[in-house]
Design goal:
The complex is a heterodimer of chains A (267) and B (344).
Chain A lengths: L1 E9 L5 E10 L4 E5 L6 H8 L7 E6 L2 E2 L5 H7 E4 L11 H6 L8 H5 L5 H13 L16 H12 L6 E5 L7 H18 L2 E5 L3 H7 L2 E6 L2 E6 L6 H4 L11 H19 L1
Parallel strand pairs in A: 3-8, 3-9, 6-7, 7-8
Antiparallel strand pairs in A: 1-2, 1-4, 4-5, 9-10
Helix pairs in contact in A: 5-6, 6-7
Chain B lengths: L2 H7 L18 H20 L2 H16 L6 H13 L6 E4 L16 E12 L6 E13 L2 H35 L7 H16 L2 H12 L3 H26 L2 H9 L4 H35 L7 H10 L3 H29 L1
Antiparallel strand pairs in B: 1-3, 2-3
Helix pairs in contact in B: 5-6, 5-8, 5-10, 5-12, 6-8, 7-8, 8-10, 9-10, 10-12, 11-12
The chains are: A alpha/beta (267), B mainly alpha (344).
Amino acid sequence: MIKFENISKTYSDGTVALNNVSFEIPKGQFCVLLGHSGAGKSTILRLVNGLEQPSSGSVTVDGSKIVPNSLQSVRRKVSMIHQEVNLSPRSSVAVNVMSGALADVSALLAMIGWFPERLRRKCCELVERVGLTENHLKRRISTLSGGQQQRVGIARSLMLDPLVILADEPIASLDPSVSRDVLSHLRNIAKERGCTILCCLHQVEMAKEFADRIVGIEGGHVVFDRLPSDVDEMTLRLIYKNYDDPFGEDVVAAAAVENVLEVAVKR
Amino acid sequence: MSPKNEIRQKTDSERPAIEWELAPPYGSKTVLIILVVVIVMIVSGNHTKIDRMFYLMGEAVGNIVGLNDSSQVVSGTKNIARSMFPLQFSETTEVSRIENFDPKDLPMFSTLKSKQTSVTRVNPQTLALEKTTTTRTVLYNPIGYFMHVLRKMLETIEIAIWATLFGIIISIPLTYCSAANYTRNRLTYGFARGAVSMFRAIPELISAMFLVLAFGFGPIAGILALAIHSAGFLGKFYAEDIENADSGPQEALRAIGVSKIKTLRYAVLPQVLPQYVAYNMYILDRNVRMATVIGLVGAGGIGQELKGRYDLFDYGHVSTILMMIFLTVFALDHISGRIRSKLI
């Protein structure tokens, strides 16, 4: 479904984000990208819907190569879920969900805020599917909790029946139980509809629980590409340096805090 | 060895002294800046006669508390105050000047009065001064002038509302072209920005003067003058808000192939709408105040009446008009405050 061929990407400020990356994601797979911040995960995602152009190599989605003048048709097949949710906070849930299908609404109707019956019905179905109620439809996004907002984000991403859903750290600001809830909604809905998911995560446990396949990115290279059950500590050390004491850097930081406290008590 | 122990060993005395530096918030540079500002203020104060202003004000205060005998300011103010009161509410019209006058059907509150006027003039035959007294019937309306001012005030408010409406309409395309992240190309951007700056740069009073020449005396010139200025303001404010709007929702829509104009409607407009309403209320408020002024150059509204009365030294009438303006602006402040708190 998605094919990366010898992709390299250098940003205009000289940062090398990706270096000769090639891999392929079959239809319907839930593929998770792991790697520390700045390793190039987001760049890979943004190449798929043309938010970034590769410096060299090519990306193919559903058999068609992504070039700048085919973006409109590609973006109808590829939807995206964002880390900061990126919903319009002052608009209602219904309007936000339906805005996922704006590419299908004529400009004039869009201006006066009139969505056709078909889209309104679809909006209701999707809001119900992600576990919200009819009462939520009219509520403003800003009145919802983080998990509910991200579920609205999922509903929005499904409005145009995408073939591919890109998820850029969708659970970054959520607590573990809400994260699990969001990811399981995403996974189940995608499986029902045969959507391919490409998802960046920082939570290793979540990745192992939900992914069909885990790809590790470090320094712009693919360093491993395995089934979740094959991802062990040794593998993870390829992308997180201190993986032996889980979250090694955090432990150091915690020790430092403890130290300061002890000194303070002594005085 | 775990990192925890490693750090614990290096405590207190063993840590080397760090060589960081945190500069004080103010220094010689600040003193220099203050010095320059003070010098500039002194020079400029000299140009604009600030010293004389303080001198006159001191003199006025001294006169009020009885320290000195004369003060130009106090006597001037007294003269104005004396001539401005009492407020003129009534209106008298000669019956003979009213067409088809019917004494049985008087307007509301009006009464008929007879008025005597004596005129002294030279008789051309005898070359002697003769005094002739004529008695005329006049229609006296105790609140006639007040009602006239009220109507004029209403016209002023109407001018302001239409001007605000046209201003908003003109500013919308200007906004779209002058928001750097939505405009199509540099040419339209430069053109729109230029237009917005130019609209804002011409004071209403000046543009009204020229528009009166083009459209004649009356509200049309006033509406257009205010609308152009409003469009300049709104175009700038709107465009800056659009440029500063949170980019997240916009990128989300861009990523799924939504056109620019729809993105503007769904990802930007909801964000900036409360601010837009506030701007529009401010512009309406401002237009009402300005609409009272542009009448001075003949562009309709209460200002035209004010100018006419002022030139005739009818200060009683002038103070009625000023009171009306004050009451209107005061009421408008309250109303706009309420509307704003409801909408935002």
